[in-house]
């Protein structure tokens, strides 16, 4: 199940597997910031325009689209302590989507 989409979206083209981020949510993800899988997020960040390591240290805002509810959630991707996390906006997103421990968060970047 795809829970979110990092914009832009072009649903006419197939999604390349290297542009998919999959994360099984843990209790820590739901209490604090969700930690994103490093190899998967770096694969996606490599094709995003305007993303730099310096920008990621302060935060790079993306929109996550919930296809099932047709809602948008602005969230910030940050890099600190050698990990990538959703920072600002994650709390609103997880509560609005009623995310729970053990659920799989699946995101993709698609041009």
TrEMBL record:
This is TF-B3 domain-containing protein. Transmembrane segments: none annotated. GO terms for molecular function: DNA binding. Keywords: DNA-binding, Nucleus, Transcription, Transcription regulation. Its main location: nucleus. It is found in: Nucleus. The keyword Hydrolase does not apply. The lineage of its organism: Eukaryota, Viridiplantae, Streptophyta, Embryophyta, Tracheophyta. It comes from the Eukaryota. GO terms for cellular component: nucleus. Signal peptide: none annotated.
């Amino acid at each position: 199940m795809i829970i979110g989409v990092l914009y832009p979206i072009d649903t006419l083209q197939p999604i390349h597997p290297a542009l998919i981020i999959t994360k099984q949510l843990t209790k820590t993800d739901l209490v604090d910031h969700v930690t994103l899988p490093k190899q998967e997020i770096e694969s996606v960040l490599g094709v995003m325009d305007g993303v730099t390591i310096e920008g990621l240290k302060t935060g790079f805002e993306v929109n996550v689209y919930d296809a099932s509810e047709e809602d948008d959630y602005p969230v910030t991707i940050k890099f600190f302590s050698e990990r990538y996390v959703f920072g600002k906006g994650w709390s609103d997103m997880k509560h609005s989507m009623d995310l729970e421990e053990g659920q799989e968060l699946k995101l993709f970047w698609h041009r």
